Amino acid sequence: MRVPIIAGNWKMNKTIAEAIELVQALKDPLAAIAGVEKVICPPYVCLPAVREILESSAPTIGLGAQNMYFEEKGAYTGEIAPSMLVSLCQYVIIGHSERRAYFGETDEAVNKKVKAALVHRLTPIVCVGETLELRQAGKTDEWVKDQVLAALDGLTGDQVSSLVVAYEPIWAIGTGVAATAADAQQVIGKVIRPTIERLLGDKVAQQVRIQYGGSVKPSNTAELMAMPDIDGGLVGGASLKAEDFCGIVEETQRVKCAR
Fold first, then answer.
1. CA–CA gap between residue 162 and residue 221 (Å, rounded)
2. Is 98 noted as a catalytic residue in this protein?
3. Is 96 a residue of the active site?
4. What is the pLDDT of residues 12-32, one digit of tens each?
5. Residue 128 domain boundaries
6. How far, in Å, CA of 178 to CA of 173, rounded?
7. Element (H, E) at 20
8. Alpha-carbon distance 248 to 179, whole Å?
9. 22-43 as b/e, with b when 16 or more CB fall inside 10 Å?
């Protein structure tokens, strides 16, 4: 059984004081929910303060960064190296569609970042997904398959089985319009997992956890988590509200752990 994982991507939201307030509201309810891996990903500047709270009172909640660079050090103004993150967090989101769209992040850069994260024993949450235009043109499967192959190029089976893949249809991110559970299952179960199987074998494909992301909220979590190949969620806006994020984790536990 794959342990479900719910990760909250706070994006460019919350000051340090606001982050402390939110994590204080999250820590006890989340720590009480068994059977689901929980991760929160605040902005870089909030990581030390959030880490201190979690380490002292809720060590079962994971902490992640929203991005990193693949070089170890150098003249890369504004970037963060993986070695700078290892003492702060355990996870890192890589290849989010906003990084690709707004900052020109390429498949090659995503692959380099995944490899650098793994060298430093950070768990990558690797994002893939198509635009509305690609979906309407019937190119979803081809596009997502190519993104998966590019992101995982050169990795071993052990490395891939240890990371997390997040399928985020770009047209559903921040729009309030989620893909249906059947849509998400179709891409995850018929494209992403089979692509990994062809690349590295069935054992690895069945071990790797694949999240759905895109307007996930408490009201649609049960339907999404009922799908056999959806192993959790990468949550955006709803992760900024303690009640909503806890509700998503609770629904995930109720559906996944009842099996």
1. 24
2. no
3. yes
4. 999 999 999 999 999 999 999
5. 5-256
6. 8
7. helix 16-31
8. 16
9. bbeebbebbeebeebbbbbbbb
Nearest to 47 by CA among 87, 83, 95, 101: 87
How far CA 88 is from CA of 46, 84, 162, 198, in Å, comes to 10, 8, 19, 35
Residue 222's CATH number: 3.20.20.70
Among residues 98, 105, 130, 168, the one annotated as catalytic is 168
Beta carbons of 27 and 50 less than 8 angstroms apart: no
Q: How far apart are the first and last CA of the chain?
A: 10
Rounded to the nearest 10°, the torsion over CA 14, 19, 25, 29 is 100
Nearest Cα to 37, choosing from 259, 254, 252, 258? 252
Burial class of 254 by CB neighbour count within 10 A (0 to 12, 13 to 18, 19+): middle
Q: Could you tell me whether strands 123-128 and 164-167 are parallel, antiparallel, or unpaired per DSSP bridges?
A: parallel
Which pLDDT does position 176 carry in this prediction?
74
Task: Give the span between the Cα atoms of 247 and 198, in whole angstroms.
Answer: 36
The residue among 254, 210, 249, 203 whose CA lies nearest residue 229 is 210
User: Two tokens at 218?
Assistant: 């408490």
Model confidence pLDDT, tens digit, residues 182-224: 999 999 999 999 999 999 999 999 999 999 999 899 999 999 9
Model's pTM, two decimal places?
Answer: 0.96
Task: Kindly state the average pLDDT of the residues 120-146.
Answer: 96
Q: Which helix (H) or strand (E) holds 41?
A: strand 37-41
DSSP for residue 46: G
Catalytic annotation, pick one of 37, 96, 105, 251? 96
Q: How many domains does the chain have?
A: 1
